[in-house]
Please model this.
Amino acid sequence: MNFSMPITRYMSVVAISILGLTACSDDDDNPTPSNPIEIAESQIRVIHAGSDAPLVNIMANGNSFIDDVDYAMSSGLATVPSGNYAVAVDAQLPDGTTTTVLSADLAAEADTEYTAVALGSVADDSLMLKVIANPEQDIAANYARVQVLHASPAVGLVDVYVTEPGADISMMQPTLSANYMDASPQLEVAAADYQIRITAAGLKQAVYDSGTVPLEALGDYFITAIPNTWSGDSPVALLVALPEGQVLLNDTASGSDIRVVHAVADAPAVDVFLDDSATAAVSNLMFKGIAGYVNIPEGEHTATVAANADNSVVVIDKAPFELALGMSYSILATGSLTDNMIAPWIIMEDTRMVATEAKLTVSHAAYSAPNVDVYLTETDDISEATPALTDVPFKASSGSLSVPAGDYIVSVTVTGTKTVAIGPLPISLENGGIYGVAAVDSTTSGAFDVILLDDFVTMK
Model:
């Protein structure tokens, strides 16, 4: 099954022996029944469509079914014995514990396929589990099967157009109309290339456009319109669940979000030029300055950084970088002007807010600092503390860490020592917040500093 982009398989179908019935024997004296008993079976799939919910574990009858399901992920279809299941969705909390946030009783009938979708919002207590049941049936030759679920609570009644690529929808009737939580019937369409567009009900201006999407013969596509937590202005993205894994389809106009951070202590204010443009994308960015996110097309680009006072003084010359559709990035100018060692460092950012945790990213952008340990503690006494991050080299980032809300002290030491080189820095983290700390050199010789990003900045 092939879309116009590679299929990313975040997880494979899990073999669930705890739900299965198995029989084995090493006793050759036991005769094989002449009429073996046929076990009735069903198929179950779980989709995470709660945009502000954390990773979840799925339990069935008190046993683990699927673990570590993140937003915009599908478990794939798993075959289980038919019967009654008590299904629970356990949220993973940042302190390492879990709590049950959803539960439902499922009577799984034979030869039936069940898709359970966690949708809604944790923040407003609207998170719920919607189950769609379909009889297992073959797909006609040279056809694909498509079913659509509207799972974006902030979006009302919409029209969905599934057409040949480039078709004019101005005089067309929509393929289907759907309100929040509506699921279409299973539709069989001829295997071919299609374009999926979503408009507000009765209007023709697309608020979502998939571009060209191939639907393969005998392909089975469960398509969920989920809240867009990526780049771009579209309110939704499409999560295409396959029998195994999934594909995320961002709106074709999503582009990529980038921001520029000046992290070179001995460099003057700079201008940043993209793709040989004579006009600066960012002007007069001083040390520790952050240029807010801007949206540019995905794909290959170059960045040139020059002194603001004299653009003929170029410190980064046409450095190539590549951006993926729907993603967000920080581009940090790092290094030392004195040593003629300035280079861009690109970090992919996780900008999805989670209602049950704070997200914290710690980055080592201090050119003159050795490998460091990073402590996140309740007080400034780290004498008996274990570092949250150890042996972090220059130009390494923690990625997005899930942290309980609260007040903390950040301390950075040379690896293996307790001598604080950066900090103690008091910070306050709130659930749903996105926070960034970048360690940098200081304008004072031999000293170090930090740049605070994201919600640290908006809180000022």
